[in-house]
Design brief:
The chain is of the alpha/beta class. It has a domain of 75 residues. 44% of the residues lie in helices and 16% in strands. The protein contains 9 helices and 5 strands. A 3-stranded parallel sheet has the order 3-4-5, with helices on both faces. Helix 6 links the parallel strand 4 and strand 5. Helix 2 crosses helix 3 and helix 5 runs parallel beside helix 6. It is globular. InterPro entries: CooC (IPR014433), P-loop_NTPase (IPR027417), ParA/MinD_ATPase (IPR050625). One of its GO terms (molecular function) is ATP hydrolysis activity. One of its GO terms (cellular component) is cytosol. This is CO dehydrogenase accessory protein CooC (Nickel insertion). It comes from Dehalococcoides mccartyi.
């Protein structure tokens, strides 16, 4: 992977820039952001990484939001896989979302965190068209006590991804999850979610 966005923004904050005449800081940072894009057949990827160092990130994050908006125009689907927590929401780097999937493990604590995320979305008036909940690593069926907690959130759509021994084995062997076979229970569950929530019937549709 090229440099992460977090590392780039941190170095931008620290650097004393001597820009050529006619180049603004905005144009320079956007150019540098282009170098973080790893391109491959059917899938391009940007690694956000972690923010590094002290200092205010307000200005770089404003540029980052603009960059993501521009970049998204070139793709049929843009997937943002955010780290657990709410920082990306409070910084508004996640906005103008067609479908937000909020993911939790099979625990009351995790589900209650979903409620705080939903509340933050409402408080910040983020432009999110639809919200769905995914409960991950479910052994058997969803515990009805968790179902009651989810009902309190007022979110209509809840999906589950089962605990999958193949994923554990792949992790131990350091094998990319993209190589999971079609008979993986988790792969089958995700494929069903893509069809029911996004209308994607075949993963080749995503890469075309």
């Amino acid at each position: 992977m090229p440099q992460t966005v977090g590392g780039l923004i941190a170095s931008f904050n620290k650097a004393k820039l001597n820009l050529p005449s006619g180049i603004t800081k905005e144009a320079y940072l956007e150019y540098q952001l282009n170098t973080t894009l790893a391109e491959s057949h059917g899938l391009d990827m940007i690694s956000m990484g972690r923010g590094e160092g002290d200092g205010c990130y307000c200005y770089p994050n404003t540029i980052l939001r603009s960059y993501i908006d521009k970049l998204s125009r070139n793709y049929r689907y843009v997937v943002m896989d955010n780290e657990a927590g709410m920082e990306h929401l409070s910084r508004r780097t996640t906005q103008n979302v067609d479908h937000l999937f909020i993911i939790s493990d099979h625990s009351v604590k995790g589900v209650r965190t979903l409620g705080r995320i939903r509340q933050l979305i409402d408080e910040m008036k983020l432009n999110v068209n639809r919200i769905s909940v995914i409960i991950n690593m479910v052994s058997g069926t969803l515990d009805p006590r968790l179902g009651q907690e989810i009902d309190k959130l007022g979110i209509a759509y809840t999906d589950t991804v089962p605990a999958d021994e193949m994923i554990r084995e792949f992790d131990l062997k350091q094998t990319p999850l993209l190589k999971l076979p079609d008979n993986s229970p988790a792969v089958q569950a995700v494929a069903k979610i893509l069809t029911s929530r996004l209308g994607i019937k075949n993963l080749t549709e995503v890469s075309e």
